Amino acid sequence: MKFQKLVLSSICFLIFINHCYSQEIKEKTVQLKVNIQELNDFKENVKLIFNRTDTIVLINKSKTSFEGELKGRFDFERPQSARLMVNVNGVGQDDKIIQSPYFLIDSSNIVVNWDLGQVISVEGGPENQLLQLFHKVEQEAASEIKNYSIGLDRDIIDSINQVKNIKFLTLIEESVDSHSAYTKLLTLLRPSSFDLRAEIEKTVSSFSKSSFSDEELRLLKNRYEEYVQRVEFQNDPSNFPVFSTLPFQETISFESLKSKHDYLLIDVWATWCGPCLAQHPTIDSLYSANKDTKDFTIVGLAISSSKDHWLNYLKKGVVKYPNYYLDSDNSEIFKKALNIMEIPRYVLLRTRDLKIVEQQIEFNNIERVLRKYKLIE
């Protein structure tokens, strides 16, 4: 239910933002000048992409200067993002597309200086000034990570990113009447920023009521609360992860199976795991002795395996209990969520709230654990 509410809320948020941009705004003319280093193998002129899909070709005034004029219902306080694109000759017959970092249509006169890389400077309105400060922080963090050796420790990268997020928050706190600050704060609502949630909450509450509507401020607060709930859910090891499975032959879906039993005893195995395969006959006998009860059932989840090997093994009829295959991506989701370092692994899931009540059941203790929960006599 929490995830359904999250999805619905996110959809409503996007609809609202789109509604804000579609309000009656006076038509404006924007003069754009782009200074770009000379590149002899241009295949086409410089293009400007704005409003996600709208494109204009800039007029080539000299080897390094391009100009364009935009007319539309622009709101400089809630500016549209834009970026430059050039199409150049690449290796062989392939063309190479180079795109600039984003900037904003936030004034009637904008000058962009671009080095054909990730460095860009913009002379425009205050929203662009703030965006460039965000770009600078991002570039400094990327440069610091790049300057380390190839075997950079994950903790060091996390530390650099943490400092980057703190700098972002400082800039946002100083610009609580800015739409760019509002947008940037939304990008910080991710798991890597969770240690800063108290500071983020304070910043959410500090946005200017004179610059944002009650609805915008309410939506921002709701997004923050949903973010906290989502990450707390993901960080709780007792919560069962969300992943996709492939059922073996005519087996019912894993989602349907969860709804038919109060508990699932999950056998986590792989086709290459000798101990897993050796224990299957015993697990299958336990399944056969209890297959008619609603209290629980046994299910196999094959991870980190070849799908063909999985199919060929199950076709031998070694086990009769429902079995499902997890591809490489879903295997990683599952292993990370349960911190699986070795298999076989036996897990007991309570289906009414999708809580893992037993994380690591020893093979010899399976029946004792089932008796503990009064699932067998």
From TrEMBL:
Alphabetical UniProt keywords: Cytochrome c-type biogenesis, Disulfide bond, Redox-active center
InterPro entries: Thioredoxin-like_fold, Thioredoxin-like_sf, Thioredoxin_CS, Thioredoxin_domain, Thioredoxin_ResA/DsbE_sf
Domain Thioredoxin: 234-362
Statement: the UniProt record of this protein carries the keyword Disulfide bond: yes
Keyword match Ubl conjugation: no
Residues spanning the signal sequence: none
Stored Pfam families: Thioredoxin_8 (PF13905)
CDD domains reported for this sequence: TlpA_like_family (cd02966)
Subcellular location: Cell envelope
The protein's name in its UniProt record: Thioredoxin domain-containing protein
Organism expressing this protein natively: Sphingobacterium mizutaii NBRC 14946 = DSM 11724
